[in-house]
Amino acid sequence: MNTLQRLFPCVTALATFLSPAAAQSTTIPLDPRATFLLYDYSYDSAMPPVILPLSTLGAAPGQWLRIQSSGAFSMGGQVDTQHRLLAVFSSSNALQPGYFTQRVLGALPAGPALTTGPTYWAEPTDIPQDFLASLTGHADYVLVPVPAGATHLFLGTFDSHYADNSDPNGDWTAVVTVVPTPPLPGTGENIELRVGVDAPAAALPSQHTATAGSTITVETRCPLDRIGGSLWLLVGDVLPASSPVVAALPSVWMSSTFVVIDVGVWPTTVGSAATFSLGVPAGLQGNAVVFQSAAFTPQARNGSYQATIAHRVLLQ
């Protein structure tokens, strides 16, 4: 009996199969001196962050965004290769002066949390609500849900000193795309699941179809490499295609009968990935399999776990 056949006795619940909507993208020029964090107000000359009304992006709470950096900038006169993009959602466009730690008055928690370091003069800068969207040497994007109550998105960077940052060729931008809302959404943090059927695995779309003889490839990644040393697992659940999926926990789409496909401690090596492939046997039409990965880390917004978007494969 192969792996997929062992998964199918573990049947529980599933989501409605939805068709993706067309994506809407907005490109925003960025200033590498811009920040919404505290900075050395008397010694530095940081610029205000970009403040975007979500309505101009065609986004609203509950929808998902792909926030990506394009191009790069120079920090402190060094090579023009940096792409450190920091973001935060807010319930307003209110921004306090640079000597306040909590400058974004309506800041709302979402996305991959980042603890930012002090300024050059050792002033603390960290706020709990912001998230990392792009990091030099790592991924240049993040997939994140818009939190309840959000009306604006703030974009900037993080540094100990901003005045000596520059963009010699003027190519530092952010690209914000409204993506189809996943039917089985995760927490939108540091761990990502990619699935492909007879094709390279991809984070989106998260709904697939497969026929007998197809090969399903499931890949877990941490694009921003922030969960090294954390316990992680990949699980699968199988059920009739007509059955709805019920969340066992917030953003967790597995029942008590799920099967653990892979488990371990996530490596600290940059760009690590865990890949699993299986062939679809004959005679399983009318069923579906759901895959989801999770990491258990104190960095999680809920204090316990980060969960990927769950992928559903309908067998035809």
Notable traits:
single chain, 316 residues, mainly beta, Immunoglobulin-like, Jelly Rolls, 2 domains, six-stranded mixed beta sheet, five-stranded antiparallel beta sheet, 18 strands, disordered N terminus
3D structure, described in words:
This protein is an all-beta fold and 316 residues long. The chain folds into two domains: 3-20 and 184-315, Sandwich (Immunoglobulin-like); 22-179, Jelly Rolls. The chain is 3% helix and 33% strand. It has helices at 3-7, 54-57, and strands at residues 24-29, 50-53, 64-70, 85-90, 107-108, 131-134, 141-145, 152-156, 173-179, 192-197, 207-210, 215-221, 231-240, 259-265, 273-279, 287-296, 305-307, 311-315. The strands form four sheets. Strands 11, 13, 14, 16, 17 and 18 form a six-stranded mixed beta sheet that branches. Strand 16 and strand 17 form a beta hairpin. The longest helix has 5 residues, at 3-7. The radius of gyration is 21 Å and the shape is elongated. Residues 1-6 and 8-22 have low confidence and may be disordered.
